[in-house]
Amino acid sequence: MGIKNFMDLIVWQKSHLLSVKIRDLTELFPPREYRHAEQMRSASASIPQNIAEGFGRWSPGDQAHFYTIAKDSTDELKAQLIQARDWKLCSDIRELLSLADEVCAMLYRLRQRVLEKKPRR
User: Fold this and answer.
1) What distance in Å separates the CA atoms of residue 53 and residue 28, rounded to the nearest whole number?
2) Which residues of 71-82 are buried (b: 16+ CB within 10 A; e: fewer)?
3) Of 15, 11, 35, 7, which is closest to residue 106 (Cα–Cα)?
């Protein structure tokens, strides 16, 4: 069958799930933490969006660039999750951190695979 569009990528599916879970989590934050909640939502939303954009690019270099941005957003989200826990906005973030770590690892491998296709000069 193969991969026909970005939604077929397991990493996109997991990153989309992560963004949904972050949205649900931040809905519980107190109103005074609106800015932190918005930053977390933005970072989590950009992960599947950049995967989708990278998937649509023609050159391996362009694809890798967007997968790198997605990974960077995932790392940013992990830091925001730790802050939210330490600021007592939420308690158990293990599942979310684990999912974020899995997405990071998958993006790293996807980026490497794409770059291996890059023609040598």
Assistant:
1) 30
2) bbbbebbbebbe
3) 11
Give the helix ranges, DSSP H, for the chain: 10-26, 34-55, 60-86, 94-116
70-108 confidence digits (pLDDT tens): 999 999 999 999 999 999 999 999 999 999 999 999 999
Joined together, the tokens standing for residue 107 give: 């993006």
pLDDT in tens, 4-48: 999 999 999 999 999 999 999 999 999 999 999 999 999 999 999
Structure tokens at 105: 């690892």
b/e sequence 52-63, b meaning 16+ C-beta within 10 Å: bbbbeeeebeeb
> What are the structure tokens assigned to 20, written together?
């949904």
